[in-house]
Amino acid sequence: MRRLVWFAVAMALTGAFAVAQSFTMQGAWGFGTSGPADSDQPNAFFAFQVNQFTYGERSHQWGWFGLTTRQDNQYVQVTMTRLEELTIDTENRTATFSGSGYYFVRSRSGFERVRGTVVVSVADNRAGNGEGDPDTLEITFYDSEGNAVFTYSGEVKRGDIRVFSYSRSR
């Protein structure tokens, strides 16, 4: 009987600890077309999703990013396949993230693939009703030696960028 009481107390404490945990999910997502601020025409397609889940003392993050554009008679594609760092500022609705990825260039002379690091900064400037400044994104690709191989900066012409944070406690 004594063992049963201790077992019941241990189960109750474990259940109380599990119920008292808080859950936080924050991140950013976006898709659409972008282009220079001084032009109405888009010159790039982009899509991404990055998330960070925190539950008690545990944390997990994942994400991806892709951008395709045409520059100097070349098709350029930047792809982030693994999220390594994520910083979310929900007050200013901005996110900065980086991870390993690839830079692809396709031109008449051939195809080039470079492995490196993608660094992306996004700003969720426009409200859901379409009022406010356009959302913006900035991308820099660094090769394995740390040289900036590609940079892109633009504002969203069609589509949306969202930066979010959601918390729940029990």
Radius of gyration: 22 Å
The number of distinct structural domains comes to 1
Tell me the fraction of residues in β-strands, as a range: over 45%
The overall pLDDT average reads 89
Task: Report strand order across the widest sheet.
Answer: 1-2-3-4-5-6-7-8
By DSSP, the count of extended strands is 8
**Individual helix count:** 1
- The helix fraction, in percent, is 10-25%
What would the principal axes of the Cα set say about the shape?
flat
Query: Describe the biggest sheet?
Result: 8 strands, antiparallel, barrel
Account of the protein in words:
With 170 residues, this protein is mainly beta. It has one domain (23-169). It is 11% helix and 67% strand. The protein is built from 1 helix and 8 strands, in the order H-E-E-E-E-E-E-E-E. It has one helix at residues 2-19; strands spanning 22-35, 44-55, 58-71, 74-89, 94-107, 110-123, 136-143, 148-169. It has an 8-stranded antiparallel barrel with strand order 1-2-3-4-5-6-7-8. The longest helix is centred in the N-terminal third of the chain and has 18 residues, at 2-19. 24% of the residues are buried. The model has no long low-confidence stretch (mean pLDDT 89).
Task: Produce a short descriptive summary.
The protein has one helix and eight strands. The protein is mainly beta and 170 residues long. The chain has one domain (23-169).
Protein topology:
Layout: H1 2-19, E1 22-35, E2 44-55, E3 58-71, E4 74-89, E5 94-107, E6 110-123, E7 136-143, E8 148-169
Antiparallel strand pairs: 1-2, 1-8, 2-3, 3-4, 4-5, 5-6, 6-7, 7-8
